[in-house]
Backbone:
């Protein structure tokens, strides 16, 4: 069984990254590569769907920190959605809800991008 | 449940692909000791953070060094000891983390030690004979903590 999987898909004016499994120091580089690819393609409206994310450590959280500044400089955002209580607890302990918008489901996050009329 | 002092241990190579095995090892012991699923996850996360710091900082990503993880418990005390022979870490040099200030500068590092202290009842560092470093993570069953601080 694969321990971690990153899948990304593009919508109109936004991209969704889906995470599955364990996001730790070993698997964090896989997520970094996805962010690098999206930013390289100038896709700055990003929703990270954490529905199947079962575990996160600070190494995984560090990936979000690494790209948020660049994304916001380009008038985009990284919004998070579908977090389990266990994963949310780690985000919360580290104060991330101050820095990131976290939504119950992916569509809510996408709607936020649409409301603001942002372009990729 | 028998809560006499006893120890189990595991030695891994200092590579991040061993973190999952470490979490599974610690989780099984914590669960058997009587911790809830949430507490078990928190303990495994704290041990992951300690091992990640050793791999990245003490061994500077050299994957061929060893890390020994030992678990002892006595009465209501559950202790995980993690020993390495890498670069020494001086906890005195670590200033308490101001989380808001840290996040406002988008700093990605330094959060592991903060998490360990938040998740465990005690985090202690020792230097052992033979230039070995030890970090001890302690959690008590049914501990009530308002805030661990940083």
Residues:
């Amino acid at each position: 069984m694969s321990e971690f999987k990153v899948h990304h898909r593009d919508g109109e004016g936004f991209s969704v990254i889906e995470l599955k499994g364990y996001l730790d120091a070993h698997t964090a580089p896989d997520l970094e590569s996805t962010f690098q690819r999206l930013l390289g393609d100038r896709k700055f409206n990003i929703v990270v769907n954490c529905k199947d994310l079962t575990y996160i450590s600070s190494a995984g959280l560090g990936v979000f920190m690494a790209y948020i500044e660049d994304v916001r400089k380009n008038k985009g955002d990284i919004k998070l959605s579908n977090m389990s209580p266990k994963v949310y607890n780690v985000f919360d302990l580290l104060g991330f809800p101050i820095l990131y918008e976290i939504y119950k489901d992916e569509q809510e996050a996408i709607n936020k991008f649409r409301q603001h009329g942002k372009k990729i | 449940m028998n809560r006499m002092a006893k120890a189990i241990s595991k030695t891994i190579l200092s590579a991040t692909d061993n973190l999952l095995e470490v979490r599974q090892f610690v989780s099984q012991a914590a669960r058997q000791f009587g911790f809830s699923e949430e507490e078990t996850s928190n303990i495994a996360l704290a041990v992951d953070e300690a091992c990640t710091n050793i791999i990245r900082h003490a061994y500077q990503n050299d994957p061929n060094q060893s890390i020994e993880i030992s678990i002892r418990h006595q009465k209501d005390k559950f202790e995980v000891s993690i020993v390495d022979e890498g670069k020494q870490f001086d906890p005195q040099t670590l200033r308490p983390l101001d989380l808001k200030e840290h996040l406002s500068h988008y700093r990605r590092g330094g959060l592991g030690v903060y998490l360990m202290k938040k998740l465990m009842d005690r985090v202690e560092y020792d230097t052992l004979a033979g230039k070995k470093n030890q970090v001890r993570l302690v959690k008590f069953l049914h501990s009530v903590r308002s805030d661990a601080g940083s």
In short: The two ends of chain A are 35 Å apart (CA to CA).
